[in-house]
Design goal:
The chain is mainly alpha-helical. The chain has helices at residues 2-27, 29-63, 69-86, 90-100, 102-121. It has one domain.
């Protein structure tokens, strides 16, 4: 697990810098910086909107006496999207925006549930 994390923490920033430099060459430095800020501000607004919608769904589920499993996982994915949107760079912004789309979030939620179920079935020794 440590190897992929090290690769992630080294490769993602290098890829982000390469993309930012390429975009800067095409549209200019100031426009690139403005685009990064615009995407972050827009992402923060979308995270707030989607997060509040999930909070309302969680409250409805709790009021109905139902455990809000899917909604809690959606909340975690929206939080991850927010973190990615605040991280400077276009690659993380794209991944964050994708996580804010309900159909993409539903697919990721299914994959996470499948992995968690497999890990529980294997007694916690399952490989992520």
């Amino acid at each position: 697990m440590v190897g992929p994390l090290i690769a992630l923490f080294i490769l993602v920033p290098i890829a982000e810098l390469a993309v930012i430099i390429q975009v800067g060459h095409v549209i200019g430095v100031l426009d690139t910086l403005a685009l990064l800020v615009l995407v972050s501000v827009t992402g923060a607004w979308l995270v707030k909107r989607e997060g509040l919608a999930v909070l309302r769904r969680i409250q409805r589920q709790l009021d109905a006496g139902v455990v809000p499993g899917s909604e809690l996982l959606d909340g975690a994915l929206i939080l991850l999207a927010g973190v990615l949107m605040l991280t400077p760079g276009f690659i993380t912004d794209v991944v964050g925006i994708l996580l804010l789309l309900p159909p993409v979030r539903a697919g990721v939620r299914r994959a996470v549930r499948h992995r968690l179920a497999r890990r529980v079935a294997l007694g916690g020794d399952g490989v992520w």
